[in-house]
Structure prediction request, 322 residues.
Amino acid sequence: MINKRIVEKLGYIDEEVDVNLVESIRELKKSKNATILAHYYQNPEVQDIADFVGDSLALARIATTVKTNIIVFAGVKFMAETTKILNPSTKVLLPDLNAGCSLADSCKYDDFKLFISKYPNHKVVTYVNTTADIKTLSDICCTSSNAVNVVNSFSSDTPIIFAPDKNLGSYVKETTKRDNIVVWNGACHVHSQFSLDKILELKKLNPDAEIIAHPECPKPILIVSNFIGSTAQLIEYTKKSLSKKFIVVTELGVIHQMEKENSGKSFIVAPSECGCSDCSFMKMITLKKLYLTLKYELPEIVLPDDVIEKARLPIEKMISIK
Ligand code: 13P
Ligand code: SF4
Prediction:
């Protein structure tokens, strides 16, 4: 017997399993009428069993079209919460509730409320990598793939608060050529650790390789990059580019799709200061946890109705912008 309270406290189901995980997940998905959505940073075997794999914007959009009774989100908590907000009547499951995000952790509700109060008349743009309650304080959310367009949806004289990623914020500020953007001081523990020196050493050894980076990377890395984009945009770029080799400066899970979509091209994981170019939160989702989540329909994402109601509008505005 599974104790729901223990699962909620632990964040995942801890049980020995002795089944073929891939087959059992496929059977449960069918019998329970469930859809699995997976982010590009998931382990390859998790991406391969998902119904849809995408970046955070694409997954939010897909979530609005899913008709099954259950959505299992193979990603981090803020993404599963976004799915729940967009589909309040669907059961949304996250195989491990501990799958957080250092950016979401860097922006707490009370601190952010105080911060906003210091900048009256500013529109609040929040990167979707935030908790649901931060979204209730936002005018509009964005992802890394539409952040520039979201900011440009406001007239150039509208002052803006951008949170929580300082690197994406400074990239947006520069790209939109606006000096009226106040940026919150948060960073991702993966992207802020990439080493410029080691990337440049790698480039010397591979002069034919293009450097491609996610905009959560610090500015010195973006300056030396040939292309900057969200995970989906980086994958698209590798398909269009004539280069045969890429130094990829983002979480290493994305390389799985790059390799699948580009035979004959090679991808080098950019080195980081700590030797950790994978997101420990994303990698908390395993096939075993996916299987147990489908079997017991736990842990479930539950949000207060008023949070869903207030957070929905900024997310809906986000998905309406290219
Ligand atoms: P994408 O917007 O590219 O999906 O990235 C999400 C993320 O968490 C990057 O660290
Ligand atoms: Fe959050 Fe960074 Fe992990 Fe993306 S890679 S989910 S920003 S901790």
The two ends are 46 Å apart (CA to CA). Residues 191-269 form a domain with the Rossmann fold fold (CATH 3.40.50.10800).
